[in-house]
Specification:
single chain; about 725 residues; mainly beta; Maltoporin, Chain A; 22-stranded antiparallel beta barrel; 8-stranded mixed β-sheet; 35 strands; globular
Length: about 725
């Protein structure tokens, strides 16, 4: 840890010393070009959310939106690229529109959006009823430029990890009177490497498998998005958003494994895998907005479609030491997802009481299909050679929020959301079928009392429900590059949860929060051993899990707002005793998981503007992170870090930056998953380290405006 924090402390110390020395001879002309004496703090802690204001921060230089999201307070990314907030799964919104992507697809998409377009990232840990049910929400808000004329920027990036990657982006904006047009195009050519070490133990016959693998992933991803907006008059706007994303992928891996039974050697093998594929996404959104600024009345109507396809072809060749001929097994898959939606939101104040009422609803229609075909000389009797999986649903939701401030000190918000889903899943060949429906009421409450302008206390309550992703229902058995098979589970059930958060604010700079959360059921990854195959799949887990969380944070600015510091540190405590007992995870020999888990986590963001009065910006970020999820427990703590330096050339509107990522310690995700069949340990070394160089050329007027949301919307947590 000393090695990690020492260089960052040295950078900040030198910056402060140099700035204080140079301030005596600074020239006002230079300062005016690059600094703002009054600006929002980099991190704001609000009642229901933490806001990461990155628009004026050097942290955006040379990064994509995905990179900045990794450095956002309270956010962590696991080894499967799943985004979490305070250790829990989240739903991601972009400009208040729910993203259709999850997991690795979401990562690849966000990696095509330059961080230079970011205004802020909102981590909404207590969302209002306006948001769809899914626990915490991350809302990525992009800049809005509506000054006259044509302006934009071009970005060129080269990143060296184990392999080399390139990224380029062109951002254009045109505004004329009542019409605004934004066009963003990007292209990335990425290559990254992942190394895995796996140690699996099956209780039956004490079978042990040791696997080491290295995988190389390549993707070429062009994308383009267009936003057209026309102001009919001072109260009515219409617009159209079009998005297209494409990714051509290729990967290869080599894995070597050894099998033991009751400590006796059984066999060894070498498995090679090659795959290629094509992903395409097309999204459309037509919107109409009525906004009466004097009366604070807002009507927002959105109608749109999303289409996503993934076409993959993979071939696995396994050479087993006890077999004379290598096994060949290939798979063709073509996933298609179609989504259609209509959403209406209305907000207005109520009389002279200062109260605000929000009401709205959404209709979602999804129609998804996953055809799979297996081929090769290793098609044994328990493997189906082909099947087509179908999933369709209709989700209808209604919500209402009421907000009011009493005695000028007590802020309140009460909300209720109702969601009803009808869904069908089936397989053509196997003939399996499931049809189900259920409705759910999801209440939430927010209270904030301001004792004075220096002290305030808030309490929030939320009930959420997390539904399985459609592909997690698909029971078709699919080979994996490490020799383990994966499948879905048609019997998956949704996961409801309840959360209470209390937050104390002092001097608007120091915050102490406590959270209690519990679930009575969940679905997590589990394993079985069937027909000489180790199979991974999502399974339903009954049992109560209780989570306790204490977090302290502070936001500080120094040296006339040039040095911004955010520090947050928390203690997590999880009670899994009932969960472990009811799922048969406890073992007499102590090989099962711990009933009680305690660990630390936190992050620090530092940014310094205009070092030496030479238009040089510095930023640094450190995160302490554990990966504890249900029946998967972390074996080690990761320390992520990032240091970047940016030089601005005001006359030519150019920027150059260098970024150092995890140069003192490479990230290693090391977890053990417990199931009734055995224990499964996976140590995965990430490729998120190295050096990155970026050049940005800007043109036109770069003045940036915030979005047109009112304080009513911001406080209520609006979302599409």
């Amino acid at each position: 840890m000393k090695k990690l924090f020492s260089p960052i402390a040295l950078i900040v110390g030198l910056s402060v010393f140099a700035q204080e020395k140079n301030d005596t001879v600074k020239q006002e002309k230079e300062i005016a070009a690059v600094t703002l004496t009054a600006r929002k703090p980099t991190v704001e802690s609000k009642v229901d959310r933490t806001v990461f204001n990155v628009a004026n921060s050097s942290i955006v230089a040379g990064n994509t939106t995905w990179d900045v999201l990794r450095m956002t307070p309270l956010v962590s990314i696991d080894n499967n690229d799943a985004i979490k907030a305070e250790g829990e799964s989240v739903t991601v919104y972009i400009n208040d529109r729910k993203s259709v992507f999850t997991g690795k697809e979401l990562k690849e998409y966000l990696a095509t959006i330059p961080a230079d377009n970011l205004l802020k990232i909102e981590v909404i840990t207590s969302p209002s009823s306006r948001y769809e049910s899914a626990g915490s929400v991350i809302n990525i808000v992009l800049k809005k430029r509506d000054d006259e004329g044509l302006k934009g920027s071009a970005t060129f990036n080269n990143r060296q990890n184990r392999k080399n990657s390139q990224y380029t982006n062109l951002n254009l904006n045109y505004h004329k009177k009542k019409f605004t047009q934004t066009l963003i195009g990007s292209y990335s050519n990425n290559t990254y490497v992942q190394q895995n070490a796996i140690y699996n133990t099956l209780y039956e016959n004490n079978k042990i498998t040791k696997i080491e693998s290295e995988s190389i992933y390549r993707n070429q991803s062009p994308s383009i998005s267009s936003t057209s907006e026309y102001e009919l008059n001072d109260k009515n706007n219409i617009g159209l958003i079009l998005e297209y994303y494409q990714s051509k992928t290729a990967s290869s891996s080599e894995a070597s494994g050894i099998n033991f039974m009751n400590n006796d050697f059984q066999d060894s093998y070498v498995q090679n895998q090659n795959s290629n594929g094509m992903n395409r996404t097309l999204g459309t959104n037509f919107f109409y907005k009525y906004y009466d600024k004097e009366k604070n009345k807002i009507l927002d109507v959105n109608i749109g479609t999303n289409y996503d396809s993934q076409k993959d072809r993979s071939l696995f060749i396994r050479d087993i030491s006890t077999e004379p001929v290598a096994d060949e097994l290939g798979i063709n898959a073509y996933n298609q997802m179609r989504n259609y939606y209509l959403k209406v939101d209305y907000t207005q104040p109520l009389g002279k009481s200062g109260a605000t009422f929000e009401v709205g609803g959404k209709m979602d229609f999804n129609n998804n299909v996953i055809p799979n075909d297996l081929y090769g000389n290793n098609l044994d009797s328990d493997l189906r050679t082909n099947d087509i999986f179908h999933y369709s649903d209709n989700i209808n939701s209604l919500y209402a929020n009421y907000s009011r401030t009493f005695f000028k000190k007590l802020e309140t918000r009460i909300g209720l959301r109702y969601e009803h889903i009808d869904f069908k899943v089936r397989q053509d060949v196997a003939g399996t079928y499931r049809k189900d429906s259920y409705g759910t009421f999801l209440p939430n409450l927010l209270l904030k009392y301001s004792f004075s302008d220096k002290y305030d206390l808030s309490v929030t309550y939320n009930r959420n429900i997390w539904r399985p992703w459609y592909s997690e229902f698909n029971p078709f058995l699919i080979p994996n590059n490490d020799g383990i098979y994966t499948r879905g589970n048609m019997d998956l059930e949704p996961n409801p949860s309840d959360r209470v958060v209390m937050k104390l604010g002092v001097f608007k700079k120091y915050f102490l929060s406590a959270r209690y959360m519990f679930t009575k059921q969940d679905y997590w990854t589990t394993y079985d051993y069937e027909n000489n195959k180790t199979i991974s799949y999502p399974g339903n887990f009954p049992g109560k899990v209780e989570k306790y969380y204490l977090f302290a944070s502070t936001n500080q600015t120094f040296l006339k707002n040039k040095l911004s510091v955010n520090v947050g540190f928390g203690w997590y405590y999880i009670d899994n005793s009932d969960f472990n007992s009811r799922n048969g995870l406890n073992k007499e020999d102590g090989s099962g998981p711990k009933n009680y888990i305690s660990y630390w986590g936190g992050s620090t963001n530092l940014s310094y503007t205009n070092l030496f009065n030479k238009n040089i910006n510095l930023s640094a970020w450190v995160e302490l992170s554990n990966q504890n999820n249900g029946n998967s427990l972390a074996n080690r703590t990761n320390v992520f870090h990032n240091i970047s330096v940016t030089k601005i050339f005001p006359k030519t509107q150019m920027e150059a930056s260098i970024q150092l990522m995890n140069i003192f310690q490479r990230p290693n995700f090391d977890t053990t998953t417990f199931s009734s069949a055995g224990t499964f340990r996976n140590s995965s070394q990430s490729d998120w380290y190295g050096v990155s160089l970026t050049f940005v050329k800007r043109f036109g007027n770069q003045k940036v405006k915030g979005n047109t949301k009112t304080d009513v919307e911001k406080g209520g947590g609006g979302g599409k």
